[in-house]
Write a structure and sequence with these properties.
The complex is a heterodimer of chains A (112) and B (118). Chain A has 112 residues and is mainly β. Chain A contains no helices and 11 strands. In chain A, strands 2, 4, 5, 6, 9, 10 and 11 form a 7-stranded mixed β-sheet that branches. In chain A, strands 1-3-8-7 form a 4-stranded antiparallel β-sheet, with no helix packed on it. In chain B, a hairpin with a 4-residue loop joins strand 5 and strand 6. In chain B, strands 2, 4, 5, 6, 9, 10 and 11 form a 7-stranded mixed β-sheet that branches. Chain B has a 4-stranded antiparallel β-sheet with strand order 1-3-8-7, with no helix packed on it. Classes of the chains: A mainly beta (112), B mainly beta (118). At the A-B interface, strand 5 and strand 10 of A face strand 5 and strand 10 of B.
Chain lengths: 112, 118
C-alpha cells in the first residue's frame, strides 16, 4: 500500500495568519497522463469529509481561493493564505493512483 | 443536486454480516466514468478506503479485506450495497459512501455509525 505521511499532525493558527500542511507519499502519484492523483479533504467537526483540492492543485467548486495545493510526485503541500475560524477541522490528503486508495493520518487545525 | 445517504444497522453482533445501503440522487451510475465507493472511519481515527464500484460494473476492493467484502449496485433504485462478513469490534466505525468522478471523491454521504458489540 502507498503510505501517506502528513505533517504537522496538530496545527494551531492565529486567525489571519497563513498555514501550511505537508503530505508525502511512499510512491510517486504522478500519472502518465501528466497529473497527480492527490486530493485534499477537510473534515469539519461532526461532518463528513469535503473535497478541497483535486489532482494536487485544482480547487473544488465553491472552495475559497485562500486554499491552494501544490507539489508533484511524492511531495505535496496545502496552503491557506489567511486562516479563518471556519477552517477548523482535520485535513486529510489522499492518493488514488493505486488500490487501495490511502489517506494521510490527518492534520488537526485549530484556532489559537 | 447530488446527494448520497447511507443506511443500515447501528449495532451488529460479532461474527454477523453487515449490510449497508447507499442511496444516491442527482447522478446515474451507468458508465465507467462514475463510481461509488465506501470509506470508513473508526471513532477518533483516520479514514480507510474499502471498496469501489463503477457504473460499468467494475469493482475494486481493499486487498486486506477482499475476502469479507462484496459491493453491488442496483441502477434502477440508485443504490449501492456493501456487504461485510464476519464483523468484529475493530470494524466499529462510521461508514461513508462517496461518489467518484474525474478521479476524485467530490460528494460524500453524511455517514452511518456501526457499532460491533455483543
Amino acid at each position: 500500500d502507498i503510505v501517506m505521511t502528513q505533517s504537522p499532525l496538530s496545527l494551531p493558527v492565529t486567525p489571519g495568519e497563513p498555514a501550511s500542511i505537508s503530505c508525502r507519499s511512499s510512491q510517486s502519484l504522478l500519472h502518465n497522463k501528466g497529473y497527480d492523483f492527490l486530493d485534499w479533504y477537510l473534515q469539519k467537526p461532526g461532518q463528513s469529509p469535503q473535497l478541497l483540492i483535486s489532482l494536487g492543485s485544482n480547487r473544488a467548486s465553491g472552495v475559497p481561493d485562500r486554499f491552494s495545493g501544490s507539489g508533484s510526485g511524492t511531495d505535496f503541500t496545502l496552503k491557506i493564505s489567511r486562516v479563518e475560524a471556519e477552517d477548523v477541522g482535520v485535513y486529510f490528503c489522499m492518493q488514488s493512483i493505486q488500490i487501495p486508495h490511502t489517506f494521510g493520518q490527518g492534520t488537526k487545525l485549530e484556532i489559537k | 443536486q447530488i446527494t448520497l445517504k447511507e443506511s443500515g444497522p447501528t449495532l451488529v453482533i460479532p461474527t454477523q454480516t453487515l449490510t449497508l445501503t447507499c442511496t444516491f440522487s442527482g447522478f446515474s451510475l451507468i458508465t465507467g466514468e462514475v463510481a461509488v465507493g465506501w470509506i470508513r472511519q473508526p471513532p477518533g481515527q483516520g479514514l480507510e478506503w474499502l471498496a469501489l464500484i463503477y457504473g460499468n460494473g467494475d469493482k475494486v476492493y481493499r486487498p486486506s479485506l477482499k475476502s469479507r467484502l462484496t459491493i453491488t449496485k442496483d441502477t434502477s433504485k440508485n443504490q449501492v450495497v456493501l456487504i461485510m462478513t464476519n464483523m468484529d469490534p475493530v470494524d466499529t466505525a462510521t461508514y461513508y459512501c462517496a461518489r467518484r468522478q474525474s478521479v476524485t471523491y467530490g460528494f460524500w454521504g453524511q455517514g452511518t455509525l456501526v457499532t460491533v458489540s455483543s
